[in-house]
């Protein structure tokens, strides 16, 4: 009896620890999402307000005006940080070093991205707000019934936490450059470096929005996949057809949102990914210079630190896309297994056929 009591006590303790970890992951994930929304509004990426009571993004003309002003200020700062002596002698471009070319390209990408952000916020204001409201509708309707299942999606929380941690650690590396790596930096150089840090964070936040969109899509698809598995295990293949049809309808709406998101943010994402890739290449070149010219152990550790963080950040973006695609393919296969068009109306049957083909 004592052995059995000890076994059950350990089992309950392990279960309690697992539940606490799930709750903490949920709390941290919510904090990351809230912080991202506020940072996006502050840096002029989102021209919307945030209702704290209802915890949702809302339309706001004051935030729209503020967003335009911030974008204009950032463009002016980027033009100030642009090395002007190189712009005067464009005919001598063949003599530029790779670092000079990359720095010019990165600033040009940042300025172009800011113009695209302004244009998107102005021309697609209602469309982007519609996508956000559609996701909020998903949370309040179908997925609100499966909150307990949603908390068990550990992969969603882990990927969100790792990506935000990589962004924070990258900002720490920028601070290290100003305070330690380049001693005696002049005020003008420090200002330019700070401007570059802000611009890189704007680009990183835009990429993080794409990352969050893919992760949210993955989480919805994962929940629907688990629900289909539960239905198959408990009631058989041909029962609970109403929920199967509901899952199919939600999945079709998610596909349409993905197409709409790609149409709105496709060019901006291409610019931002090019900027991030160029920044990573330039970072590797600078790290090689630091590695060869410095014998300080702290600077050597800094090189490994930046290399690991940039590799992790780049890998996470690719991995989450593969994760979402793989989960969507599994969901489609499960939907095929439950396909019973006799209980569907004609419009839904055509949509399902279109999505599967």
From TrEMBL:
It holds the Pfam family 7tm_7. It is a multi-pass membrane protein. It comes from the Eukaryota. It comes from Bactrocera dorsalis. The keyword Cell membrane applies. Keywords: Cell membrane, Membrane, Receptor, Transducer, Transmembrane, Transmembrane helix. InterPro entries: 7TM_chemorcpt (IPR013604). Gustatory receptor which mediates acceptance or avoidance behavior, depending on its substrates. Belongs to the insect chemoreceptor superfamily. Gustatory receptor (GR) family. The chain crosses the membrane at residues 31-50, 62-82, 94-117, 173-192, 198-221, 268-292, 304-332. It is found in: Cell membrane. This is Gustatory receptor.
């Amino acid at each position: 009896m004592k052995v059995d009591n000890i076994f059950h006590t350990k089992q309950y303790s392990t279960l309690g620890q697992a539940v606490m970890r799930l709750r903490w992951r949920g709390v941290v994930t919510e904090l990351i999402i809230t912080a991202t929304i506020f940072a996006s509004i502050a840096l002029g990426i989102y021209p919307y307000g945030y209702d704290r009571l209802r915890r949702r993004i809302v339309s706001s003309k004051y935030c729209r005006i503020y967003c335009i002003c911030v974008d204009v200020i950032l463009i002016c700062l980027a033009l100030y940080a642009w090395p002007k002596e190189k712009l005067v002698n464009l005919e001598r471009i063949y003599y530029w070093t790779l670092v000079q070319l990359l720095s010019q390209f990165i600033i040009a990408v940042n300025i172009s991205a800011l113009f695209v952000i302004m244009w998107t916020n102005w021309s697609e204001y209602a469309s982007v707000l519609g996508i956000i409201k559609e996701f909020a509708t998903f949370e309040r309707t179908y997925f609100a019934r499966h909150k307990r299942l949603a908390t068990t999606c550990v992969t969603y929380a882990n990927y969100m936490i790792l990506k935000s941690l990589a962004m924070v650690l990258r900002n720490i590396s920028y601070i290290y450059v100003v305070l330690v790596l380049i001693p005696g930096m002049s005020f003008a150089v420090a200002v330019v470096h700070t401007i570059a840090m802000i611009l890189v964070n704007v680009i990183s936040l835009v990429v993080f929005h794409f990352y969050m969109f893919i992760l949210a899509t993955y989480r919805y698809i994962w929940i629907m996949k688990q629900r289909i598995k539960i239905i198959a295990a408990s009631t058989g293949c041909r029962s609970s057809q109403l929920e199967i049809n509901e899952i199919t309808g939600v999945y079709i709406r998610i596909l349409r949102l993905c197409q709409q998101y790609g149409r709105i943010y496709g060019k901006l994402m291409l610019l931002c990914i090019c900027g991030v890739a160029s920044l990573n290449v330039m970072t590797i070149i600078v790290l090689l210079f630091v590695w060869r010219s410095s014998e300080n152990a702290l600077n050597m550790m800094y090189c490994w630190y930046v290399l690991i963080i940039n590799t992790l950040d780049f890998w996470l973006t690719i991995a989450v896309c593969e994760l979402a695609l793989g989960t969507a393919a599994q969901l489609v296969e499960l939907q095929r297994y439950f396909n019973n068009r006799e209980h569907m109306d004609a419009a839904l049957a055509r949509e399902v056929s279109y999505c599967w083909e």
